[in-house]
Structure formats: C-alpha cells, structure tokens
Amino acid sequence: MKKFIRAATASVLIVTTSAWSMAAIAGPIAPETYLSSSDSAAIEGQRAQVVDWLQREEVRTQMTRFGVDSDQAVDRVAALSDEEVQRLAEKIDSTPVGAGGGGVIGAVIFVFLVLLVTDILGFTKIFPFTRSIR
Questions:
Q1: In contact, 53 and 59? CB cutoff 8 Å
Q2: CA neighbours within 13 Å on the CB side: how many for 97?
Q3: pLDDT tens-digit readout, 43-70
Q4: Which of 5, 66, 79, 118 could be joined to 123 by an S-S link, Cβ 3.0–4.6 Å?
Q5: CA distance 112 to 106
Q6: CB 116 within 8 A of CB 127
Q7: How confident is the model over 63-82, as pLDDT tens digits?
Q8: Cβ-count burial of 34 within 10 angstroms (0-12 exposed, 13-18 middle, 19+ buried)?
Q9: Alpha-carbon distance 35 to 76, whole Å?
Q10: By C-alpha distance, which of 102, 79, 82, 98 is closest to 90?
C-alpha cells in the first residue's frame, strides 16, 4: 500500500511540475506600443474568429433555419463595435461543444503511460497485466 501511495504521489508531482513549468521572460516595453498594436490585433483576431465560426456548415444550416442569410450575418459582424466582438468571441470560446476535452483526454493518457512505464520498470505494481523487467 505504501508503494502505491508513493508511486501515485510521485506521478502527480511529475505531471504537475512538467506540465505547468514555464519560464518567465520579462522586459520593459512602452505602454503605447503594447496597447495600440495588441488591442487592434486582438480585436481583428477575435473578429476573424467570429467570422470563421459563422462560416461553419452547422452554423450556416442553423442560421438558414432561422431565416438569416449568412452573408448578411458576416456584414453585421463587420459592423459590430470592438466591445461587442470581444463579448461574442468570449461566448463562442466558452461554449461547451467539446472544446478542451482533448486536453483532459491527453492528460489521462499521459498519466496512464507514466504509470505503465513505471510498472514495467518495476518501480510500481499497479497493473496486473504487466511484468517487471527486474
């Protein structure tokens, strides 16, 4: 039982330290440079994201069912203010249509593979279908 707890703790520590370790690089910048270029670029990126979302086939089908022309919807997005585009892009990003599910599945597979390798190397004995090389 102690081996299992030790192995589980080690696996969690390995995953957290390797997944969330990022190097921070900072340097001084002029506020005007950052605000003018990043805001306009971010808004245009969000506007393009909304237009791309409107071009998807299932969205076009739904708009047609509601009686909205897709070209007219794209023209309306072009006429939106920056704040409205930001709110709309945030709503699109937060919709739960499977976005982010790949990260969870990837993390589960990664943990399984780490435990499998440690089991094969003989550090743990979690899975009954593996044989240790020791």
A1: yes
A2: 7
A3: 888 888 888 888 888 878 887 887 778 7
A4: 118
A5: 10
A6: yes
A7: 788 777 878 888 888 887 88
A8: exposed
A9: 26
A10: 82
| Residue scoring higher pLDDT (117 or 18) | 117
Question: What's the token pair of residue 20?
Answer: 């969330």
* Total residues belonging to the chain: 134
What is the C-alpha to C-alpha distance for residues 2 and 41, in angstroms, rounded to an integer? 54
N- to C-terminal Cα distance for the chain? 20
Backbone φ and ψ for 27, nearest 5 degrees, come out as: -155, 160
Predicted confidence (pLDDT) per residue in 89-98, tens digit:
888 777 665 5
Which two structure tokens, joined as six digits, stand for 105?
């599945």
